TrEMBL record, chains A, B:
Complex formation: Homodimer.
Catalytic activity: L-alanine + 2-oxoglutarate = pyruvate + L-glutamate
UniProt protein name: Alanine aminotransferase 1
Predominant subcellular localization, coarse grouping: cytoplasm
Keywords assigned: Acetylation, Aminotransferase, Cytoplasm, Phosphoprotein, Pyridoxal phosphate, Transferase
UniProt-recorded Gene Ontology molecular function terms: L-alanine:2-oxoglutarate aminotransferase activity; pyridoxal phosphate binding
Native source species: Patiria miniata (Bat star)
Length: 532, 532
């Protein structure tokens, strides 16, 4: 994307240069020399005063300027540029760019699930319901969805929280997942990917000025949607550090330190937990989740549980425990604890990022506030109905005995077992490299290895005005064609340096990537070796 | 939607009642009795203090509370309730609810365009590319889109402003539409419906405090996305009134009055123009657009041109003139005038609301600000790729000589001629009713008739704490089963009363609707007749 920006910017500069003639009034950013309406009244067309742009860096929304979203940041832009140069025959020390920056499974070659796409195609073009090559269970799913759509078309608006039948299916899914603990369809809001829902919920809880301003606790390292959204909506970001030495564990003492410090300058209202972790790949234990819930309850925090990787657990002995289930099992004491849990079609085994499906389960929210949340989403009309249909397949997959059950199960198992294999290979490979250490990838789709950067490299980076991990990642891209996201895009303890690399390239491709990586890394380390 | 909320709320209340036992600490909204972390430290689980909800009406985002979106407001909620009651066999003075509240063509029975759905189905399930029953031109469109998708799948993320080929097609469309005036694909941002793009752009230009706070001029009556968004982002809404006596014309003297008044308390930065108008149905003349551009240029305002109804022009002698074309033809003097123009797949002849497609063309935006806008959308990852594919068909329809050309043209012409017919019938029908006057529906999808309410009705409404137009619309729903949106949801001159009714029911249905309407209206007027 940033590549597109860069190209777009340079092309735009050209086009602007062609279009914009020098202005008669001096171009003083932020100081627009308006004449009063009365002075204008007698002007003829030819005498219109020139003026500078209305929107400049000085006059635009200052919060947007503060946003950063490294997953699609400048290094990715540069990777896109290099890719185009390679296509045009440029000579580089590598033959391709491997994009390990984003959790985009289909882009890395994963095939869509047959059943899922059949259902969405049937909903899109109902004439296919007459096509005998489509299985009956896919047709039944599509018929049910279409029946729920006004006018029988996915081209009509759904209710703003989504089609009723899909909300029902989501609630059933959650109930099965959580061993029978009830879920209410009226607590489900479908959204275009989890991101949209997360932004809505965070927006809902921002208020106050000065010390009263809402603060939101987020893990460091975190997925930068959170820091970007908090910057955009002008909420206070409260960092709590995950414990790298303890497999990126979540320690309540650290939560306490973090909130106590935050209370001196803002009003903490929410804690975000990403489980399985992004970018860290940790899977939180049941007792750890209990600790977090007790902490949030004690401290008066809404819990935002980002559980979009709930299907992506690989480590032996690790299991996904939903916050909803643990909260409910903690008993009535906690029955007023507000919790929002998010799921997505973009991750898991389906990897349907582009179709934009997701849901949020809203638990124990004040009734009036919930009405306000529904009002907020009503102005957005509705999330994409085809994205809702994708979510429906995820929460209501083929059942045993249905015609598509076997194929679906095989395709799902294949994706998940390959991911598990790669999760293992990646961490082991990194740990075999001197100067790199990597926690096990217990879940999600990323490794987050730590680089022991020589002081010389740190100094050199500072000399050229770069964060040391950005400096390293830039060299990794320029010298080995591997695109990763520097750790500073997620946050890391000061003085430590990391990068996030997805586990999505194919097993074969990954061997190539690791060879290229090792070669680059030893060359980089030799170049900046510290004098003893 | 609001129906869903209401149901959801009542069911939620039940479930909360079941779940939440009385709390040990008193529930004092907004005053959460926290104990300090230290006091807590020694507590065992059973001794956890109870607390009230974190998020209450007192602690939630105050701006969201101010939002209103009448198109999905309480009257629609009530319509949904009545619909369910009818389904359950309740006896009412009507047999069905006619939903004339929202521009949702498929919900009212319009069929999707064959070619459009074929292309999206092919993109969704590429195995259909082998199916000989799909026409070659649809396959070619799908292949081109899939080739532009990473990994050849619409399940991969696109670039945040959309797939390159679709941005190119949109630019070509604009260039054709505007008689050859160039459009740059880098100026196109695809979005999930126009609403998403409009929200982003408005967000971009909010800044300042007190008198420096950004103001946005919007027409009254307006489409409530604008008032809702301005409330949400805490920008100042500046009303300018359209001239009902002059076919909802846009008068520059009124713009001047409005901005002069606004400058006393805020900093106007933007003017929104909806053309063709929603809810007013007016189509602005070329010279009127020139006036608006000159006004915006003189006063230092970004122009937001909501042109989603650009295909919906029915009145003889009326034509759609894009702001882009008029701006460009005004010459170099205006080449620094910032303009954002929006289009959507939800309206026009396609009516694909649920698939969420749209684009924004960004003209003359400062290069650095444009980069910031692209950064803002990057955290949203990308608009739904299937919605992008829908937009592609709209901007790149079958060409003469292609296999689908005739069917596509026939389907399109049928929809548009039927809408034109209904636009005429509706206005005429309303004008034949005593106490109702309605401007011609020149374009868009709505009539916005004025009701001359008897003073007795106004008094009665006030007595029961309702706006008089809401009171009228509620009775229209309860007595005739017709769901419209009261004029106060869009804004209207004080002391005037209107409602918005779509022209989407079928011609036959509309005859029924008008009979029901007339019967209701004369009964209502008789009931509240003013004493002479």
């Amino acid at each position: 994307m940033q590549g597109a920006i860069h190209n777009s910017t340079s092309r735009l500069v050209t086009s602007l240069t062609q279009l914009v003639r020098p202005s008669r009034t001096a171009r003083t950013a932020g100081l627009r020399p308006f004449l009063s309406a009365k002075m204008m009244a007698g002007d003829t067309e030819g005498d219109q005063p020139r003026r500078t742009k209305v929107l400049t860096m000085d006059t635009m929304n200052p919060h947007i300027k503060l946003m950063e979203y490294a997953v699609r940041g400048p290094i990715v832009a540069r990777a896109n540029e290099l890719e185009k140069q390679l296509e045009q025959g440029a000579s580089k020390p590598f033959n391709d760019i491997v994009k390990c920056n984003i959790g985009d499974a289909h882009a890395m070659g994963q095939r869509p699930l047959t059943f899922l796409r059949q259902v969405v195609a049937l909903c899109t073009y109902p004439k296919l319901l007459e096509d005998p090559s489509f299985p009956e269970d896919a047709k039944n799913r599509a018929r049910r969805i279409l029946h729920s759509c006004k006018g029988g078309s996915i081209g009509s608006y759904s209710e703003s929280p989504g089609l009723d039948v899909i909300r029902e299916d989501a609630a059933d899914y959650i109930q099965r997942r959580d061993g029978g603990i009830p879920s209410n369809p009226n607590d489900i809001i479908l959204s275009a990917g989890a991101s949209e829902g997360i932004r809505c919920v965070l927006k809902l809880l921002v208020s106050g000025k000065g010390k009263e301003r809402s603060g939101v606790m987020i893990p460091i390292p975190q997925y930068p949607l959170y820091s970007a959204t908090l910057a955009e909506i002008d909420a206070i970001q409260i960092n709590y550090y995950l414990d790298e030495a303890n497999a990126w564990g979540l320690d309540v003492a650290e939560l306490q330190r973090s909130i106590d410090k935050a209370r001196t300058h803002c009003t903490p209202r929410c804690i975000v937990v990403i489980n399985p972790g992004n970018p860290t790949g940790q899977v939180i234990s049941r007792s750890n989740i209990e600790d977090v819930i007790k902490f949030a309850h004690r401290e008066g925090l809404v819990i935002v549980a980002d559980e979009v990787y709930q299907d992506n657990v690989y480590a032996k002995g690790s299991h996904f425990h939903s916050f909803k289930k643990v909260l409910t099992e903690l008993g009535d004491e906690y029955s007023n604890q507000e919790l929002m849990s998010f799921h997505s079609t973009s991750k898991g085994y389906m990897g349907e990022c582009g179709l934009r499906g997701g849901y949020c389960e809203i638990i124990n929210l004040d009734t009036e506030v919930k009405t306000q949340l529904f009002k907020l989403i009503s102005a957005k009309l509705c999330p994409t109905v085809s994205g809702q249909a994708v979510m429906d397949v995820v929460v209501n997959p083929p059942k045993e005995g249905e015609p598509s059950y076997e194929t679906f199960s095989e395709e799902k198992a294949h994706v998940l077992s390959t991911l598990a294999e790669k999760a293992k290979i990646v961490a082991e490979a990194f740990n075999s490299v001197e100067g790199i250490s990597c926690n096990p990838v217990m879940g999600a789709m990323y490794s987050f290895p730590r680089i022991d950067l020589p002081q010389n490299a740190v100094n050199k980076a500072k000399e050229v005005g770069k964060a040391p991990d950005v400096f390293y990642a830039e060299h990794l891209l320029e010298e080995a064609g591997i695109c990763v996201v520097p750790g500073s895009g997620f946050g890391q303890r000061p003085g430590t340096y990391h990068f996030r690399m997805t586990i999505l390239p194919s097993v074969e491709k990954f061997k190539d990537v690791m060879e290229r990586f090792k070669k680059f890394h030893s060359s980089f380390m030799a170049r900046y070796k510290d004098e003893d």
